[in-house]
C-alpha cells in the first residue's frame, strides 16, 4: 500500500504548478475508510501558494473526511525523478497536526527505501489547544 501511494503521489506531482521554484511535489493522502485524495503544489506570484500536502488535506476535509491514516509525499525539481526524501514544510506539519493522531504515517521514499514518520517525529512539542 505504501508503494501504491508513492506511485500515486508521483503521478499527481506531474500536475504541479510551480513556475517559480520549479520544485514539483505530489502527495497521496489515505483516509481510514480507504479513500485517497491527491494533491500537488500550486504556486502563485502574488500570494503564497499551497503545498501538495495541504492541497490533499483541503480536498479531503472539504469532502467531509476527518479520519486519516497516512500521506505519501514525493518531490524533486522539474525534470528530475523524485529520488531523495521530501518532508513537509513547517507550515504543513502544524496544519496536519490538527487532523491526525499519533498513528498517522508520513511516507517518503529515499533512494528506493520507504521510510515512515509520525507527527511526533516531525513536530514534537507542537502548539495545540
Ligand atoms: Zn508545506
Radius of gyration equals 14 Å
Helix-strand topology string: HEEHEHEEH
General form: globular
Count, helices: 4
Main sheet attributes: strand count, strand direction, barrel closure: 5 strands, mixed
Mean pLDDT: 96
Poorly predicted residue ranges:
none
Helix content: 25-40%
**Ligand list:** zinc ion
- CATH fold node name: Cytidine Deaminase, domain 2
Span of the ends, CA to CA: 33 Å
Oligomer: single chain
Structure summary:
By secondary structure, the chain is of the alpha+beta class.
Give an account of the 3D structure.
By secondary structure, the protein is an alpha+beta fold. The chain has helices at 2-13, 52-62, 90-97, 119-122, and strands at residues 23-31, 36-40, 68-77, 105-110, 113-117. It has one domain: Cytidine Deaminase, domain 2 (3-Layer(aba) Sandwich). The chain has 4 helices and 5 strands. Strands 2-1-3-4-5 form a 5-stranded mixed beta sheet. A hairpin with a 4-residue loop joins strand 1 (23-31) and strand 2 (36-40). The longest helix is centred in the N-terminal third of the chain and has 12 residues, at 2-13. The mean pLDDT is 96. The chain binds zinc ion. Zinc ion is lined by residues 51, 53, 88-89, 91-92.
Layout of helices and strands:
Elements: H1 2-13, E1 23-31, E2 36-40, H2 52-62, E3 68-77, H3 90-97, E4 105-110, E5 113-117, H4 119-122
Parallel strand pairs: 3-4
Antiparallel strand pairs: 1-2, 1-3, 4-5
This protein binds zinc ion.
Zinc ion (ZN) is lined by residues 51, 53, 88-89, 91-92.
Amino acid at each position: 500500500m505504501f508503494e501504491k501511494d508513492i506511485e500515486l503521489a508521483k503521478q499527481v506531482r506531474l500536475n504541479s504548478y510551480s513556475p517559480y521554484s520549479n520544485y514539483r511535489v505530489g502527495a497521496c493522502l489515505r483516509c481510514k475508510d480507504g479513500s485517497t485524495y491527491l494533491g500537488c503544489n500550486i504556486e502563485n506570484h502574488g500570494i503564497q501558494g499551497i503545498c501538495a500536502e495541504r492541497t490533499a488535506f483541503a480536498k479531503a476535509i472539504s469532502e467531509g473526511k476527518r479520519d486519516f491514516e497516512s500521506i505519501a509525499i514525493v518531490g524533486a525539481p522539474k525534470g528530475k525523478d523524485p529520488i531523495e526524501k521530501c518532508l513537509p514544510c513547517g507550515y504543513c506539519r502544524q496544519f496536519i497536526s490538527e487532523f491526525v493522531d499519533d498513528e498517522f504515517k508520513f511516507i517518503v521514499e529515499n533512494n528506493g527505501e520507504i521510510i515512515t514518520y509520525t507527527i511526533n517525529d516531525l513536530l514534537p512539542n507542537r502548539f495545540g489547544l
